[in-house]
Every structure is written in structure tokens, then in C-alpha cells.
Design a protein that fits this description.
The protein is an alpha/beta fold. The protein has one domain: TIM Barrel (Alpha-Beta Barrel). It contains ten helices and 14 strands. It has a twelve-stranded mixed beta sheet. A two-stranded antiparallel sheet has the order 1-2. A hairpin with a 5-residue loop joins strand 1 and strand 2. Helix 1 packs across helix 9, helix 2 runs parallel beside helix 3 and helix 3 packs parallel to helix 5. The longest helix has 15 residues.
């Protein structure tokens, strides 16, 4: 069965990219996401079971036209049933493209199994090449684990391996060239992401955010060239790095995700499912739609699909960060999913 009516909003955008948060728990404590002491985790009974996750993704793929599924967290590698979930979703027809965003801790043990289950590629968060700064940023001494995870992902064929980096003013804002050199040396694709107001502490300040414009200025010596291929709904503006190729022999690319200073809301094609079964039409949405209750009260696939369509019809035109009335979401990034 295939989709006859997709996830179209009032502005004509069609959501084909599903972000699935598998847990709100994480084994790091990055300051731009959560406090050092952590957060009150979601009770297990509120979290979707493996069967519930697979069913909702199946509805999205078979009835709603979703073609890409990305697993997020918290930290998705913590989810015990992760490999099985990937395997079952990879068997859906039509088969969606499957990716995962992770901090990389434990990826050295799971990369081969995830690839065997059907995962196509990974994005690994790495904000610094210095172990001391990694501890400052994450409050954990796990830098070497992340590097091992990156190597294992490449060896397992989870390519292109992408690195997500956030630069914080006064902490790691001098590392753009070093991070790019590291990515070019290993054949990874680097993506810089502007820091967004999604921390649990609600302490985000625009002044602390290193902008995409500042980052490109710090990389002027690389002679970056804009990629002329159509960007479409992709969040990253892509630049080619002359004289370099990636692990597949393709021209080396650098991505810049300027979510705050150059929002791409007008082309957004994402829908989000939280670990407790709520649909979010936007990363910064103030409202959610409850699919978990429908599931647990015996709703049919068609009823779930109808509720999902209704949730996406209400998607706002943009995130509104620059609007004076902007209010940061109650849920932090760890509880929403990337």
C-alpha cells in the first residue's frame, strides 16, 4: 500500500522526512542542550515500545509518503532495541532511506550491526578535536570514544559519514579550520550548525552563537565554492572544497546550517515523532499531537494517518526566532529529537 495523500501543510510544503526520537536519555551533558546534573528522564511506560515505533513509521511510509527516516535521541545508541528497529523498518516497502544522528559513543561496537540491519549512514556530533575542550563542552571524558565511532562507521560503510559541529563563542570558535582539515583528511563530510535556542536551561543568547557568515569567513583560505546543485529542502547550504575528495572519490563538501540567521523554513520537509509518541510539525512548535494514545486505544492505521495529516496541516510558516513574541519550546532538544 502506498500513499495517496501525504503530509501537506497550509503553505504547500510536503513532509517526506521523518525524524524519530527513540529516547530522551543521553550519556553526555553538552551545555547547549542540558544541565550538568542531567534532566528528569521520561518514564519507561510513556516511551513508545519497539513495536509502536515500527508501526508508526510504517504508517508514515505506506500511507503518508515519507521517504526518509532519521533516528535521533537523546542518544539513540542507548536504545536497546535499536538494531531490531532499524532491521524491521528497512524491510518496509517502499523502503525509506535510513540514517541516524549520534554522539558516537558506542558506535564502534554497533556500526557493523547497524549497517547489516539496513542503516544507510550516520551523522556524528563532534564539536572539538581537543579532549580538554570536549570535557568542557560535554562534561565527560569520552572524546576518544567518538573518534573510534567515526572510524568504525566509515569501516562499516555507513557513508558518507557526516560530522555535525556547533561552535560556541569563547569555547571552540577557533576550531573551524582544524575541524575541516580533520574531515578532509579522513574523507568525512563536515557540517557546521548554528547554535539554536533549544537548551533545557533556556540560557541561549544570540551573542554566544557563532554565525554561518563568521564560519565561512574563517575558512576563506580554502577557496570554498558554492555547490550549484539544487539545495531543495536540505537544511545545509553546501560548499565545495577545491582540491579535495571524500572517501567515495566525490568532490569534498562542507555544509553550513544557518538555522537562525538564514532560516530555510519555506522549504522544510520534516515531521517529527518524539519518543513518547507525539507529533511535532516544527522543531520549535509550541503544540504537539498525541499518536501514542491513539495507538494504545486501538486506532486503525487510517485513523492514525488522518491524525498525523491534521497535525501537519497546522505547521507554522517559520520558527519565528527573530519575532519579539518568540517563545522557546518547553521541551529541550534532547526530548524533541534533531
Amino acid at each position: 500500500m502506498t500513499s495517496t495523500s501525504g503530509l501537506t501543510d497550509r503553505f504547500g510544503r510536503v513532509a517526506t522526512d521523518l525524524r524519530v526520537s527513540l529516547t530522551d536519555r543521553c550519556n553526555l551533558r553538552c551545555g547547549y542542550c542540558m544541565p550538568e546534573e542531567g534532566l528528569a528522564w521520561m518514564p519507561r511506560e510513556q516511551q513508545l515500545s519497539d513495536d509502536e515505533v515500527v508501526r508508526l513509521v510504517r504508517v508514515a511510509v505506506e500511507l503518508l509518503g515519507v521517504t526518509q527516516v532519521r533516528f535521533t535521541g537523546g542518544e539513540p545508541l542507548i536504545r536497546r532495541g535499536l538494531v531490531g528497529i532499524v532491521d524491521r523498518i528497512a524491510r518496509l516497502r517502499p523502503r525509506p532511506a535510513l540514517s541516524l544522528t549520534t554522539n558516537g559513543i558506542g558506535l564502534d561496537r554497533l556500526a557493523a550491526a547497524l549497517r547489516g540491519a539496513g542503516l544507510d549512514r550516520v551523522n556524528v556530533s563532534l564539536d572539538t578535536l581537543r579532549p580538554d575542550r570536549f570535557h568542557t563542552l560535554t562534561r565527560r571524558d569520552r572524546h576518544a570514544d567518538v573518534l573510534r565511532g567515526l572510524s568504525a562507521a566509515a569501516a562499516a560503510g555507513l557513508t558518507p559519514v557526516k560530522i555535525n559541529a556547533v561552535l560556541i563563542r569563547g569555547v571552540n570558535d577557533d576550531e573551524a579550520p582544524a575541524l575541516l582539515d580533520f574531515a578532509l583528511r579522513h574523507g568525512y563530510q563536515l557540517r557546521f550548525i548554528e547554535q539554536m535556542p533549544l537548551d533545557a536551561q533556556h540560557g541561549w543568547r544570540r551573542l554566544d552563537m557563532v554565525t554561518a557568515e563568521e564560519i565561512t569567513a574563517s575558512l576563506v583560505s580554502y577557496g570554498l565554492v558554492p555547490d550549484q546543485n539544487r539545495r531543495g529542502a536540505a537544511p545545509a547550504e553546501i560548499w565545495l572544497v577545491p582540491g579535495h575528495v571524500d572517501a567515495a572519490g566525490e568532490p569534498a563538501r562542507l555544509g553550513l546550517i544557518a538555522s537562525v540567521t538564514q532560516p530555510f523554513c519555506g522549504a522544510c520537509d520534516r515531521t517529527r515523532l518524539t519518543a513518547d509518541g507525539q507529533i511535532r510539525s516544527c522543531l520549535f512548535a509550541s503544540q504537539e499531537s498525541d499518536l501514542r494514545s491513539l495507538l494504545r486505544n486501538g486506532a486503525t492505521d487510517q485513523e492514525i494517518a488522518a491524525a498525523w495529516r491534521a497535525a501537519m496541516r497546522g505547521k507554522p510558516a517559520g520558527h519565528g526566532i527573530d519575532d519579539p513574541s518568540f517563545r522557546q519550546p518547553d521541551r529541550p532538544m534532547s526530548a524533541i529529537g534533531g
